[in-house]
Amino acid sequence: MLTMTHLQKVYRTHLIETYALRDFSIRVEEGEFVAVTGPSGSGKTTFLNICGLLEEFTAGQYQLDGVDVRGLGDSARSRLRNEKIGFIFQSFNLIPDLNLFDNVDVPLRYRRIAAGERKRRIEEALARVGLASRMKHYPSELSGGQQQRVAIARALAGSPRLLLADEPTGNLDSLMARGVMELLEEINRQGTTIVMVTHDPELAARAHRNVHVIDGQVTDFDSEPMLVRSVRDGDASRAMA
Amino acid sequence: MEIRPILSALLRSKVSMILIGLQVALTLAIVSNALFIVSERLERMQRPSGMNEADTFLFNSTGFGQGYDVKSVQQGDLQLLRGLPGVVDATSIISVPMSESGWSTGVSLQPRQATSTANTALYMVDAHGLSSYGLKLVEGRDFRPEEIGFRSMNDRNVPTTVIITRALAARLFPQGGALGKQVYYDNEGPPTTIIGIVDHLQTPWLDADFIDNSSLMPAYLPYGNVTRYLVRAEPGRRDEVMQGVEQAMIQANPSRIIGRVRTMEQVRADGYAGDRAMAIILGAVIVALLAITALGIVGMASFWVAQRTRQIGTRRALGATRWDILRYFHTENFIITTLGLVVGGVLAYALSLWLMREYQAPRLPWHYVPVGFACLWLLGQLAVLGPALRASRVPPALATRSV
Ligand SMILES: Nc1ncnc2c1ncn2[C@@H]1O[C@H](COP(=O)(O)OP(=O)(O)OP(=O)(O)O)[C@@H](O)[C@H]1O
Ligand SMILES: [Mg+2]
């Protein structure tokens, strides 16, 4: 799904240079559920932002779904983002002035999808996160967990290949966090690749693979993808047992 | 990006939308009416007086002392003026167009008519009058020197010949054939024969409803010891002639004072001073209102951009291009402006009706409102461009970086 090799990201301000990522290499296979952990300031968000084409990198290589994204213009990056990637943010980032229906509609409109098709997708996505009955509500009328579900619906409506989540449960209590995690797992089971940054070791343990980042580098021996199919099979056998 | 979600988001912050919308509405209402008044004034100021204004000037001569014979001085002056280098012609006058003072009277077709057929201004000239004013004779003939008589202020005898403007001729004889007809300038007196028709000459009064009705009569009419002269110079030599004229007059007869020598251009400027002031004031009001509205839009849009920075970052993260963000703010402005303009269009016509009732103003021509629509749309789009560009530069990473 994505391959980064010797990636480097330097933030330059007028006085200091911060190496947010240095010699960062990682492969994520299609269908994986990767949890990214690491101390604060280690570069997790930076990695995720570069994954999602929100930021550019200073050196190295990055291939997203077979496309070398280096040197792509802003519009091309926006389009790739819109078509291939779904984002889930720690603080939900719903648009407060739009009701749930219109919130989920936002990325679909940028893809210029016809109205009927958009409506179908929105209703389906909201139904999938269990909020079909609240389409006309505004974000402020929902609990945090519900807001994050809307954000997930918004990410799902565009049927992305890759779902990026930066501490999606960071602002939720453990019960709501578990609900969101279960939803993400279900989405992953249906084939969407997920890369999730989290501070919660319990949640990280539930992913297929953990990537540990320290000081802008992947430190874990576990950074090569394992066979996804076998994990799925494992899940299935556990369910049967 | 479509209108519906932007509109529903806008409806959640009604107050600011209503404030800007109302500002746009009031601006349209006031600007369209003010623009109409300005254009009316400018049009009014463009009216031709009918005489040569570029090369002419006028002045008074006031004699004093015993034995000052106004008649002989006048004849001598005219002779002298006509002989000055650069002078085309000169005549004695009582008034000029746009000066707001002069004589007027009624003209009748029959003696002892209860109400006169038309009103007219009276210009007293000699046989050099047409040439000095620079009038175009379209029918008949000019005055002959022997027709010119000396008259005093309370002389009731009306000259027996007159030259009138085409407008007055049409008013008196709508069927045509005014030349040679007899009309009555004095209800009791003998008739006057129309011997010539000139193309155009305004009355001295800019607001007169008979502004194009003028009559030229063959007479010298000093006002006590005051005589007034109109001099027409060769093209381009007016100022040069003007400079020497006072000196020449005093040299010819020192027992008099020469009043301020004024060009017809100055007379026009003074005559239309009120209109010009009105046009300038309203023009300033228009510019100020447009500037305030534009600044209001810039301020509001800047505030909204700042307030929604995080939202903009999120939209970028979800796939909006810079162009999509730019278009969002332009569309939003278009919606607010359009709502304001619809209200403003109604207000504009209401204001026009009120002006018609209170000030007898003419009706606002319908096309001023659509033109105002276009201007304010453009103004709004220009005003929002800066903030919208700022919005489009919000980095998408803001979605994950801001708290
Ligand atoms: N825009 C920026 N300008 C300068 N330095 C930055 C910028 N963004 C991030 N950094 C720096 O890059 C490093 C990595 O930051 P990053 O946000 O990726 O950390 P993180 O692992 O996500 O931390 P946290 O767990 O606290 O979210 C930090 O040292 C941070 O200060
Ligand atoms: Mg972070």
Name the descriptors.
heterodimer, A: about 240 residues, alpha/beta, Rossmann fold, six-stranded mixed sheet, four-stranded antiparallel sheet, disordered C terminus, B: about 400 residues, alpha+beta, 2 domains, 12 helices, 13 strands, binds adenosine-5'-triphosphate, binds magnesium ion
Question: How is the topology of this model organized?
Answer:
The complex is a heterodimer of chains A (241) and B (403).
Chain A: E1 2-12, E2 17-28, E3 33-37, H1 44-51, E4 59-64, E5 67-68, H2 74-84, E6 85-88, H3 100-110, H4 115-128, H5 144-157, E7 162-166, H6 174-189, E8 193-197, H7 201-205, E9 209-214, E10 217-218, H8 228-240
Parallel strand pairs in A: 3-8, 3-9, 6-7, 7-8
Antiparallel strand pairs in A: 1-2, 1-4, 4-5, 9-10
Chain B: H1 3-10, H2 14-45, E1 56-63, H3 70-83, E2 87-93, E3 103-107, E4 118-125, H4 129-133, E5 137-140, E6 149-150, E7 161-165, H5 166-172, E8 182-183, E9 192-198, E10 214-220, E11 226-233, H6 238-252, E12 256-258, E13 262-263, H7 264-271, H8 273-307, H9 309-317, H10 322-359, H11 368-392, H12 398-401
Parallel strand pairs in B: 4-10, 6-10, 7-9
Antiparallel strand pairs in B: 1-11, 1-12, 1-13, 2-11, 3-4, 5-9, 7-10, 8-9
Helix pairs in contact in B: 1-10, 2-8, 2-10, 2-11, 3-6, 8-11, 10-11
The complex binds adenosine-5'-triphosphate and magnesium ion.
CATH topology of chain A: Rossmann fold
Number of H/I helices of chain B: 12
Estimated share of beta-strand residues of chain B: 15-25%
Q: Quick one: CATH superfamily of chain A?
A: P-loop containing nucleotide triphosphate hydrolases
